[in-house]
Design a protein that fits this description.
Shape: globular
Number of strands: 2
Number of helices: 8
Structural class: mainly alpha
Largest sheet: 2 strands, parallel
Distance between the termini: 42 Å
Strand content: under 5%
Length: 224
């Protein structure tokens, strides 16, 4: 892998870690009164959360770097690309990923799969940013795998197009689970994502399966 690509991935991962820490601090310490819903007691201890989240982080990094090492040439090209191409590639990756993820997430709500796998995530009724990746390891691998599969299906894409999609993908997953409403207009999209996913976690389990875009839920009648 090119050094610039590795540096870009490292920067985005650092950004995601800092954003997660900030959003967690805001929801739990600084502005708990801005939580969308009051957290309810659950059977997940702090130590269990730390072990699960740390493990899923490690697996995600290994999956990403391993996939790029073995299949990087089929997924990413290093030649320069125009800004329009970079934007188009990033948008295409995110649209395809979110479309596939919609059905993946909806399938996770099958009673048997919910009981064995996806229910781990729903143990936390109103998750915060830190709990965004509190999931069964198989679900974590599946979600990250779908993102990489989307790039493989559309690839090769430019390094910049990949990094753009990876940045939005990483950021969105944290903001979706932030469970906090900001008053500043610049946070309107973050509020929308958080409120949409809060409905899925706390009100309608069979609504709002998509992660990034509202199109797929509206198309298949599961938008709330």
């Amino acid at each position: 892998m090119p050094t610039t690509l590795i540096i870009g991935i490292a920067i985005i991962m650092t950004w995601a870690g800092l954003l997660m820490a900030f959003m967690q601090y805001a929801a739990v310490v600084k502005m708990p009164h801005k939580r969308l819903r009051e957290p309810k007691p659950n059977r997940v201890t702090l130590m269990k959360k730390i072990i699960n989240v740390s493990g899923n982080m490690g697996v995600s990094v290994l999956l990403l770097l391993g996939t790029l090492y073995f299949a990087g040439t089929a997924m990413i090209y290093t030649e320069s690309a125009s800004y329009l191409t970079i934007f188009g590639e990033g948008l295409a990756i995110l649209l395809l990923y979110d479309f596939i993820y919609y059905f993946f997430h909806r399938g996770m709500h099958h009673p048997k799969i919910m009981k064995q796998i996806h229910g781990v995530h729903h143990y936390i009724r109103h998750p915060t940013a830190f709990e965004s990746i509190y999931v069964h390891p198989l679900e974590g691998i599946g979600g990250n795998g779908l993102f990489l599969l989307s790039i493989f299906m559309l690839g090769p894409v430019s390094s910049e197009g990949f990094l753009l999609a990876f940045f939005v993908y990483s950021t969105c997953n944290i903001l979706v689970h932030a469970n906090i409403k900001w008053e500043h207009p610049s946070m309107k999209l973050a509020n929308y994502w958080a409120q949409k996913h809060d409905i899925h976690h706390g009100v309608h389990l069979n609504r709002n399966y998509a992660s990034i875009f509202p199109f797929w839920d509206k198309m298949f009648g599961t938008y709330a």
